[in-house]
């Protein structure tokens, strides 16, 4: 009996680590640094806001979608066939070539810009999309290899930065003009920008399949499923929260002296300042490769979605892959600020309604609460009016 329990604990731990690996993408590396640099001595309140929208809300999304067997088409069908399909396409486009994939490329470039003097973004982006194409053309297993190697290296690198930055380097947070509510709101909005709720919708099926290996019939028991998710998330989301807090405080202590030409270079410059040239360059290289690994994963997800659900096989996976990477290349040349210029208005308009929708789906599964369309529509309209008049 003890062996069975031990195996269950090990499996839950592996699911928790999988949660961390899936959510820790390009935005998760940069936004805590930008928050700490901006909030300074008010970072605590900014971190609380970040944890709400970048940890708690994505966990709710994971749980809610798992109650629909990890099927995002079934999940969003409660909005109606056409609105639900439109939301799925929007999410896929944003986590694909119109936002997250090019953002991964740009942040990867920002991490290695100091390694290769004279390397411009256009050249780096071209090299990156070729590399991604070679790794995804035959659905290569190189992604699994990179993930198994790079995720631990990335985690070790970030822990090294945090320990060195907090305990073995001189530095102190500057004084911010932000109030506690302004700092909290800033962290809340930056948490939106990680787009982790979108990732939760798309990757929930992976987590659910891992849980079903432990308990095959758990999908029909919402409360038991929630219990397992809570145990696994205490590892994955707890680790994510710890990294967020550490990176944010390190940036608050050391970020005031950074002179950045672009936000995507924040982490690279911070690392070089804390670790010095040699160790800093090694860490920057690891971060850059980890960002490209995320881009590889998302390229496969988006290309397969377009092939199977949009073109229904009329356009092959290979050609969808080419189209995905061409768009990603073009969008990446807009740099971090340009990409955020596309993403932020969409997130501000859509995320409040999606958060409400997620809560309503949870309420439906746990308590049989059926109203959804009218509530989501009212939330969307009120958000739009607020954005228009503010």
List keywords for this structure.
Amino acid/polyamine transporter I; mainly alpha; 16 helices; 390 residues
Listing every helix as H and every strand as E from the N terminus to the C terminus, the arrangement reads HHHHHHHHHHHHHHHH
Under the CATH scheme, the architecture is Up-down Bundle
What is the class in the CATH system?
A: Mainly Alpha
The fraction of residues in strands falls at under 5%
Q: Distance N terminus to C terminus?
A: 60 Å
On the 0-100 scale, what is the average pLDDT? 83
Task: Tally the beta strands.
Answer: 0
Number of helical elements: 16
What is the CATH third-level topology name?
Answer: Amino acid/polyamine transporter I
Structural class: mainly alpha
Molecular shape? globular
Rg on CA atoms, Å: 21 Å
Number of domains: 1
Question: CATH homologous superfamily, by name?
Answer: Amino acid/polyamine transporter I
Describe the structure.
This protein is mostly helical and 390 residues long. The protein has one domain: Amino acid/polyamine transporter I. The protein has 16 helices and no strands. The chain starts with a helix and ends with a helix. 46% of the residues are buried. The N terminus is likely disordered.
Helix-strand blueprint:
Layout lengths: L1 H22 L2 H14 L3 H24 L5 H5 L4 H15 L4 H13 L8 H16 L5 H26 L12 H14 L2 H19 L7 H33 L11 H10 L1 H34 L6 H16 L2 H33 L5 H17 L1
Helix pairs in contact: 1-10, 1-11, 2-3, 2-9, 2-11, 3-9, 3-10, 3-11, 3-15, 6-7, 6-13, 6-14, 7-13, 7-14, 8-11, 8-13, 12-13, 13-14, 15-16
